[in-house]
Amino acid sequence: MAVARLQLDALQVLALAALGVAVGSWLKQRVRALDRLEMPPAVVGGMLWAVLLLVLRDRWLNVDMDMVLRDILMVAFFTSVGLNARLRLVRQGGPQLIVFWAVAGAGALLQGLVGIGAAAALQLNPLVGLVCGPVTLAGGPATAIAFGSTFEQMGLGSATTLGIAAAMFGITAAGLLSGFAGGRLIEKQGVREAAGALRRPVAERPMPSAVEAEAEGDTAAGPLLRHVMALAVAMGLGTVLSRAIERAGVVLPAYIGAMIAAAIIRNLDDRFGFARLAQRQVEAIASVALNLFIVMALLTLRLWELAHLVAPALLILTAQVALTWLVAATLTFRILGRRYESALMTAGYVGFMVGTTANALAAMQVLAEKYGPAPRAFLVVSLVGAFLIDFANSLVITALANLVR
């Protein structure tokens, strides 16, 4: 029986990606296990399409897709991360945010070194160790996909597929372990009594500036266009910056330059107010770009290439999860001050250093409902997990990848 072939253009792929997000959201509402594990709807829908295409491949239907929009959306998402990298928020989090950011960055570096060492011991390409480390654990699905094409150009042919599988392992492990890690510390260290002392009066909470408040209230098409324009300018400037870095012999993913350019634009805007960028609208643009990008990336997974890497990848990933747990239980809690909010942040650390920020915040919310509020812990983990760790992690991955290539 002849195998049919279907060619989808860029707009048809965009429609399929949007449908994947919708299907993933629908499944999460009806399959409780997916919701408990904090699986992103885009990942659920994208994996469904990937499995369906695998079943059809070389049997009934082979599908070719124009993926030009996938790469643009990837850069757009990480550019939006840069647009939210505000020094004002770093100051708001205080010294504890800097400490937590440093701990997370050190954790990403440790994951990279352990991954490379484990890959060498198993006689694998050292890039496999990076994929089964900071790329997918500290990074998550989006970083796995973003670095996948770069690693494939460096010689690891199944980098994207392996990255998605490793990220799914991490999300599952984080859903099972992060809340338990924080709860065990709270009970074992007897820090529950400190919860009430951490509530901050409303008067102490920083108020937005007049410019920021006005920008946050913008909902019309004009202000949205202003944010898209800032994103586009940052993406364009980022290509110039990335090419300059690459001419120095450093291999890096396409989004690094754009993310740096966006961070500069955002902090200049905070100082001079020329674009009046609002965090809420930047986050909305980021959400759209990320969800569509993830589904498009999953549509091109070559799942059949993964079989020979399953066993060694599982060994490396299991070692990484155990290492992250050990670091969290012995060092992270102590470095953060051995208080109640330190235990919650330790739970968050396990959550996003193994899975995603969604894992981290979900586990912390459960602990806060049981033991008491800790608003500053949520602020610190949100800022580091949502975008600050991406800066540190991208630098770690890029440096180590260029070291071992």
What does this protein look like?
The chain is mainly α and 405 residues long. A two-stranded parallel sheet has the order 1-2. The radius of gyration is 21 Å and the shape is globular. The model is unreliable at 193-220 (pLDDT under 50). It contains 16 helices and 2 strands. α1 (10-30) packs across α12 (279-299), α6 packs antiparallel against α16 and α8 (159-189) runs parallel beside α15. Helices cover 76% and strands 2% of the residues.
Largest sheet: 2 strands, parallel
- Give a count of the beta strands, DSSP E runs of length 2 or more: 2
Report Rg: 21 Å
Order of helices and strands: EHHHEHHHHHHHHHHHHH
Keywords summarizing the entry:
two-stranded parallel sheet; mainly alpha; 405 residues
Which helices and strands appear, and what pairs or packs with what?
Elements: E1 4-8, H1 10-30, H2 32-36, H3 41-56, E2 61-65, H4 68-83, H5 87-121, H6 126-138, H7 141-153, H8 159-189, H9 210-216, H10 221-247, H11 255-272, H12 279-299, H13 310-335, H14 340-354, H15 357-371, H16 375-404
Parallel strand pairs: 1-2
Helix pairs in contact: 1-3, 1-12, 3-12, 4-10, 4-11, 4-12, 5-6, 5-13, 5-16, 6-7, 6-8, 6-13, 6-16, 7-8, 8-13, 8-14, 8-15, 10-11, 13-14, 14-15, 14-16, 15-16
